[in-house]
Structures are given as structure tokens and as C-alpha cells.
Amino acid sequence: MAVSNGKVTVGTAATVIPVSSVNPFELHIHNDDNTDTLFIGDAAVTSANGLRLVKLESMTLLMRPADRLFVVSTKSGHSLSWLAITKDI
Fold it and tell me: Torsion over CA of 52, 32, 10 and 1, rounded to 10 degrees?
């Protein structure tokens, strides 16, 4: 099992969470902002079509090696923390 983590600053353009693995992994994401919502989805995510991650909320997703998660905000400088736990096969 390998663990990696980081922070991403999100704005109004879709931003990828920079995680990759050759094995399946759990991706834990946290909206660090105490006022605004983040929106998650694919490369075409917007605040109108994304899954909401409200202020200070966390979410865990099971990801495959080729999966990529994108995040967008309605403002610039929105902070997101992430933790990836890679599953050994």
C-alpha cells in the first residue's frame, strides 16, 4: 500500500487532481474552503453539472488507474486537499 497527498488550488476552469497509479486506489478529497462549494466530475465539469462538495466536506472515491477527477469552483484560489491510498494487487 502506498500513500500520497497534496493540495490543489482550484479556480473557474476545470483542474485535474494530480494523482496517478498503476493499481486501483482510494482518493479522499476535502474542500478546505469554509464558505464555498467545489464541483467535481470529468474534464467538462462546471458549477452547473458537477457533483457538489460543500464547504469543509470530505468525500472518498474508488478510482482505477486510468481514472482522472476534475474539480472547479465559482471563484479563484479555492483550496482542496487530497489523499490517495493505492491498493496492492
Answer: -90
